[in-house]
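Dear support,

We are seeing what looks like truncated structure output for some complexes. This example has four components. We would appreciate it if you could run it in full and send us the complete token output so we can diff it against ours.
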Amino acid sequence: MTERPYHHGQLRTALLDAAERSLREGGEEQLSLRELARELGVSHGAPRRHFPDRQALLDALAETGFGRLDTQLRAALTEAGDDFVPRLRATVAAYIRFATEDAALLELMFTSKHRPGADRVAAAAGPAFTLMNDLIVQGQAAGELAGDPERIGIVLFATMQGIATLINGDMVEPKLLDGLVETAVEQFVRGARPA
Amino acid sequence: MTERPYHHGQLRTALLDAAERSLREGGEEQLSLRELARELGVSHGAPRRHFPDRQALLDALAETGFGRLDTQLRAALTEAGDDFVPRLRATVAAYIRFATEDAALLELMFTSKHRPGADRVAAAAGPAFTLMNDLIVQGQAAGELAGDPERIGIVLFATMQGIATLINGDMVEPKLLDGLVETAVEQFVRGARPA
DNA sequence: CAACAATGTATGCAGTGACAACAATGTTGT
DNA sequence: ACAACATTGTTGTCACTGCATACATTGTTG
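Here is the complete output from our reference environment:
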């Protein structure tokens, strides 16, 4: 039977699902534990068993968010083939897609801000950075990039992140997005090209 | 006598000052109207006379924030002399200084997100963009940049913003900051240089 | 000096996150 | 099989928040 899918053993994942949806719809501010509990037909104290406080829920969201980001980036990479520039372009596009579709989640992922002891979140962020780094390393191996890999990698990451922020903050029209990605990639390649 | 500096006619500005400090100390989430009122020795309903709701206070903060950003950028510019690259470097450095010192404020300025009818905030953001644009135009006039000014300007802005976000989110060590600025400027100039 | 507007006060409402005591429901060791 | 236990969810409470309204005070002005 299992008339009720939740209410029994699935509360934790149900909360995460509902929270992610709520995040997408109303942003972090709007997300309310009590509201989630209500939606899931559960008492307002129930979430506490799974997440000691609100921040714990947000941390969990951020953590899984990084995981999903990583898989999406990898998917884009494998689809892009072996050449460096197409791979770069695909990665940038995929990242910004994620960042604009799940803006609130990404903000949450980043602004797990300064909070001491967000080890798990930090750890979850690793792969995405590694991926970025590997891409840079490939570019250098292919003789297309020069300079300190760490630095140029961070600058690239920053540019992507910034474009997403600008779009999400309505300071740039979404219709410009594709052009911006193109310009950013092109400039990056030219700017980091060996002399 | 005027024993009490506030409580009479200064509440509005006093609120803005206290709010900005609170923002710096605890971020937007932490900022509480009641807390501010308490600090200023005023009833918790008083702020309502000056800001109909919390968001109005935040909007006002964002607005003045853009103003201050603009003046700081201009100050950096005039101090940098007339040559393009030093001006560019100075602007980037000044922007990121602002962004890392007043992180919460900047976030607020940007994530006055999508909210319909934040005309004043949007208007206040204008000058900073204009300044950026003028800088690009100068670079082009000096024959140092090529390409669509709007696009490369946005990409530059995005890179700055992204670096600030990375630092503020503790995803990059602050000690790397100067090097990153240098790399970003250098790459930008090379990347947008005429062929 | 009386009418008026601006500013701040007092009180109450609904909503929230956190917390603790309790009940129900598996799970497990003997 | 059954008693002890752990997990999970419930209920009630507290302190806090933003918001709203009715009221008092004060300063300005006709």
